[in-house]
Amino acid sequence: MSFLRPLRRPPALQAWFSTRRCYASAGSPAKASASPSASPTDKKPEAAPLSSCPAGTVLTGLNYLKGQSEVIAEPDDAYPDWLWKLLQPKRIPDDGPGGYAEKVRLRKENRARIRDSNFMKTQ
Fold this sequence. Notes:
The chain is mainly alpha-helical and 123 residues long. The chain has 4 helices and 2 strands.
């Protein structure tokens, strides 16, 4: 990251983070402290749901044709496996000097340098 990146893009307001649902924990901390008999080893880790809405939820705003029925969310197993991997960062294996990973890194650095020089030309 270059030193000019903060100058180019002002930080966006992330107000939607406060309203977004989080599935990081299964219960509230108050409930966990209320039952002293349960030890941390007794709890089984629960699998976090893949989607952000349960099956049967009406997804408003997705039907853009007139007269189209409401779009309803399906269970997670009804969707293909590759769908849940779309937002994960692409992993490039490090294959040594002169390999694909180095080529990608150099291309990224070159693009950042070109953007910085173009930005400085406009000032």
